[in-house]
Design goal:
By secondary structure, this protein is an alpha+beta fold. It contains 4 helices and 4 strands; from the N terminus they run βββαβααα. The protein is elongated and about 70 Å long.
Length: 130
């Protein structure tokens, strides 16, 4: 899923920026530069929202950025939990499947990589591009 949330960027005493998301409890990060702070904000936002999705929790509705009062700066942060999962949650999972014997023999003889073929077929079936 793709999301856009307002984030508050404040100057840190030791330099750099502290970032927090007023709509998502305990969602905060920091960065030495504004670019780094934005990248870190995208990452922590994706991580938190992926957890909401995985746990079946209701994802908070983003506030109107214009109505947020702060001494810092409000900036909208975009993130995509599907892209984040592809980057972070990329471990292999073993699956057992059943094939007709004749198809198994023919595929093995042809040197077919079963894992890769299954991944390609699943992505194709769900309209996902790798």
């Amino acid at each position: 899923m793709k999301y856009l949330y307002p984030a508050i960027f404040e100057n840190a005493e030791e330099g750099g920026y502290i970032v927090n998301f007023p709509d998502i409890p305990n969602c905060f990060t920091c960065g030495d530069t504004m670019i780094e702070a934005i990248e870190m904000a995208q990452d922590v936002l994706a991580m938190m929202l992926a957890d909401y999705e995985d746990c079946g929790k209701e994802v908070p509705i983003p506030s109107d950025a214009k109505k947020i009062e702060t001494k810092g700066m409000v900036n909208l942060v975009f993130t995509d939990t599907e892209m984040w999962r592809r980057t972070v949650d990329n471990k292999a999972v073993k699956k057992t499947l059943t094939l007709p014997s004749w198809l198994n023999k023919k595929a093995e003889k042809s040197g077919i990589n079963f894992s890769q073929t299954l991944q390609e077929a699943l992505c194709n079936k769900m309209g996902i591009t790798l």
